[in-house]
Amino acid sequence: MPSSRIARIVHFAACAVILSACVSQGPGGAAQAERRARAEDIVRRGYQPIEHAAIESGGLAWRVDREKVAIAWTMPAGGSALPVVIYLPGLGESADRAGVVWRQTWAQAGYAVVSIQPLEDDATAWSSEEARALEFKTLAAQRHSAARLQQRVVRLAAAVHEIRRRAAAGEAPWERLDYTRMSVAGYDLGAQTAMALGGQHDAGGPIDELTERVHALIILSPVVLEGEGQRTRFEHLTGPVLSVTGPSDVDPTGLVSATSRTMAFDLMPAGAKFELELAGVSHAMLSGAIETERDTRREERATGRAAAPRGGRSRQRSDGNDAERSGSEGNARPGSEQARAREQVSAGKEECDAAIQVVSVAFLDASLRRQPSAERWLDEQASQWLQHLGTWRRR
Known about the structure:
single chain; Rossmann fold; 10-stranded mixed beta sheet
């Protein structure tokens, strides 16, 4: 029998614990307090969730179709008939570490969040042969291919079927979930899979059975590959969709263009479609990881490597640049130009985290719980609330 480790977190106020946990260590307590205050003000002025729950979490691995599938769950410690959010990690992310900020926020708002990495080698992608050879774009192209996407959807559908089978048998915690109110959220590679489950496919292509059970999508860093910008590919995305991106949402592998991120929203049919475009958000920030600053620096190095032409001399040149950058980052003194730049990124992260938390909870309450207050907030108040942080679009 698989082992499960459970950690209980007492929640005193919606989002406050998460925001405090995500505060980066700045050069001084005053700057840290200012960043926290700005983020807390965003939460205070924003939509207030209808539930504030203590949460519990666990992780396990199942054999699904004779393949190992890692699953991590985060949900309210009590209650039943919980609305479900299936979370799909990005390339190189494990089920238990992916999207921690988002998953805990949604669970505190009363949702059962199940993180699934359908293909095991997607989680270990950064240790693959292509990654070791610095062929990041080649790696990303392989993992975003139509064949791999289909494998991912099939494996995910099998995992969800197994969850429901265990729920029917009365197995905890799965018996507490309401599978008639199910949404899918995905980041990066997971965003591509989520969009496919929502109905994005070639004209005349098959619609997966799991698609019929998905009632809403949260797309963190939408994926529209070259040649996939036809409106007919999106015509079946008729349900509620929240898309989150920004001008700095740059794919470190170079596969997905930054301009295509907003294309998804424009191509979807109108009706309960929302787009949050944050001015200060980077691709790494959208992952919802706790250690985003480190991930951002790694992302910047990968971008430099991915842009280099193939060949041994290019690799040497990239390695040298990495060493130079790593040295300057590691030796940044308080008050130096590097430290100030890092501080600005940190401040932007906390505000962006807060904005995504508030908007995503409002979207889930509106889409899965049909809360009139959440629907009104999205339609009438979100744009004014956002202020300088970015742009809010709906259609």
